[in-house]
Design a protein that fits this description.
- This protein is of the alpha/beta class.
- It is 26% helix and 24% strand.
- It is globular and about 30 Å long.
- It starts with a strand and ends with a helix.
């Protein structure tokens, strides 16, 4: 598991070649609103789900929309938390309460 640096630029989908992903690794971006307890719970929950579903073979970027509002705009984020699975294709989104959604993680690994 790797938590990537604070994001300063955004491409949808991003160039994941520079974050050291293996062919099977998943790349997720989690948009949160500040350091609220809801945001912290979403971050912890995503890590838990990724560990259980993907065996730590993932990379997660966390974007605070208050710190990076343009990234939220570019990502067309309307609500938080929003989890976006960017790699591998297809791109998927989960908005609201991050739950144990097996369909979201299916075909990710």
């Amino acid at each position: 598991m790797k938590l990537v640096r604070e994001i300063t630029s955004c491409q949808i989908p991003p160039d994941t070649s520079n974050v050291g992903l293996s062919r099977s690794a998943c790349f997720f971006r989690l948009y949160v609103a500040g350091a609220s307890s809801r945001s912290q719970q979403a971050i912890v929950r995503v890590h838990e789900l990724c560990r259980s579903q993907l065996n730590d073979d993932y990379t997660l970027e966390v974007v605070d929309i208050y710190q990076q509002p343009l990234l939220a705009l570019e990502g067309r984020i309307l609500a938080t938390p929003t989890l976006v699975k960017i790699h591998p294709d297809p791109i998927k989104r989960m908005t609201g309460r991050v739950s144990d959604n097996h369909d979201f993680f299916r075909n990710s690994a």
